[in-house]
Amino acid sequence: MITIEALKEAGANVQEGLERCLGKEDFYLKQVNMGLTNQNFELLEASLKEKDLDRAFEICHSLKGVIGNLSLTPLYELICSLTEKLRSKSDEDYSALYDQIMAVRQKFLSL
Questions:
Q1: How far apart are the first and last CA of the chain?
Q2: How far is C-alpha 91 from the geometric centre of its chain's CA atoms?
Q3: Does residue 91 surpass a pLDDT of 90?
Q4: DSSP string spanning 22-88?
Q5: Distance between CA 6 and CA 108 in Å, rounded?
Q6: pTM for the full predicted model
Q7: Which end of the chain, N or C, is surrounded by fewer C-beta atoms within 10 Å?
Q8: How far apart, in Å, are the Cα atoms of 38 and each of 5, 89, 107, 109?
Q9: How far apart, in whole angstroms, are the C-alpha atoms of residue 98 and residue 41?
């Protein structure tokens, strides 16, 4: 089960995230769980595989907002990088960055 202390140790800015949740730890932890299990992670993978860069950008940008509001900094930074790469719509392989995102997501989920 995810705890405040485990999130801190994993690099999340828990204080900032808690402030957005009015200091309510239970609510914050519930939001973290919902954010990490957001279906957009899987939809992003499908969009990248289909090379639908417009859709991938929209999905990634949405995840950026969710994860940013939760202050899951290591994951947020990677999502920001992918968002900016997708914004440029360059024809490149995004799979390595996506794999990094999923690895950090899994790290948080396993707390």
A1: 6
A2: 23
A3: no
A4: TT-HHHHHHHHHHHHT-THHHHHHHHHHTT-HHHHHHHHHHHHHHHHHHT-HHHHHHHHHHHHHHHH
A5: 9
A6: 0.96
A7: N
A8: 22, 24, 15, 12
A9: 9
